[in-house]
Amino acid sequence: MKSTPLHPQFGIEVHGVKLRRATQEHLYPEIRTLFEKHSLLLFRDQHLNDEEHCAFAYLFGPLEDRSTVRMDGIPEISYVSNVADDGSVYGESEPRLLELKSNMLWHTDSTFLPIPALANVLQARVVPLEGGATEFVSTRAGFKALATENQERLRHLFFWHRYGHSRSRIDPHLAKLDKFTMWPDQKWRVVWRNPLTGEGSLYIASHAFAVDGMDQTEGAALIDSLLEVMTPPHAVYSHAWEPGDVLVWDERAMLHRGTPWPYDQPRTLVSTCVSARDVDGLASMKSPEIQGQDT
Length: 295
Fold this sequence. Notes:
Distance between the termini: 41 Å
Strand content: 15-25%
Mean pLDDT: 93
CATH class: Alpha Beta
Low-confidence stretches: none
Number of domains: 1
CATH superfamily: Clavaminate synthase-like
Shape: globular
Largest sheet: 7 strands, mixed
């Protein structure tokens, strides 16, 4: 597969591949190898329908049920959009647009779920005339750049994650909606070790609100400082969407965020998350007491 780099530290654009033709035996093995190595893959001019989008994502593993986000159609796919069912666009104070704005915090998808995500497959359907880029940084590269003593300290820590926490940073009323309070807090190890490459990545998100065993204020300060360390301007790849673009990224090793656009212009992306499994390193992310329950 021919490719060109997106950023010096991570990410490639893959050329000449039609994702609708991928199967477990054809194309996917090469794509998965690139995924493990580069963390972020771009495929242009795909224009997948919902069924094709989900079929490609399913090659990576079981799909999350997104029906809490989208109650009609395919439950494994959600629309990241400011367009209402009647074709109008949401106003800036409406909950749906506030939710989109909360995606503009640096985050990793699904850290608040009992089973977190391995990958996101995100496709552009409608893009605004300006703005609306999605930005990425590598927490594998960021973790590697830390001093060895800091790496070792972080390997022994656990973050607590809560969906409503990230939403509360945008609007306190948004955080109280049922869709953001329906899951209990989740505790995950701070460093996710890739079982294939052996490399560690900082597993952090805007959903992280506390460090297990640490004072609340001290823990929150550590989380904020690590997010800042991971996201300096030179470490960021900003993707300007074109219709038909598909981005696939490793949720174990990437942070991402949306960026603003003129909200009177429609913007629609479609997203499917793939759930992580033990083969992806999930078992090692659990706290010892949870590991004991699993066995």
